[in-house]
Predict the 3D structure of the following.
Amino acid sequence: MRFTIYSKPGCSNCKKCIAILEYHNFDMKVYTLDVDFNKKQFYQEFGEGSTFPQITMDDKHLGGCSDTIEYLQKHNICCEV
């Protein structure tokens, strides 16, 4: 499993998801707004009005922080978040 996180500086939900995935030693790549992509590219990829973070797992779009946590728990990918 490889996770990709599209984050922005100062985002508490971004930090939370990164910490959870790091805690469970998941393979992940973090992309940061205005470093790796801009807002226009972000909205083209995830839709106008999308919030941060947006997370994919093996190219499957999981959604934001709460959607990702729910997915991990529902599919028994990690037991504690």
Notes: The longest strand covers residues 2-7. The chain has one domain: 2-74. The mean pLDDT is 94. Residues 12-23 form the longest helix (12 residues).
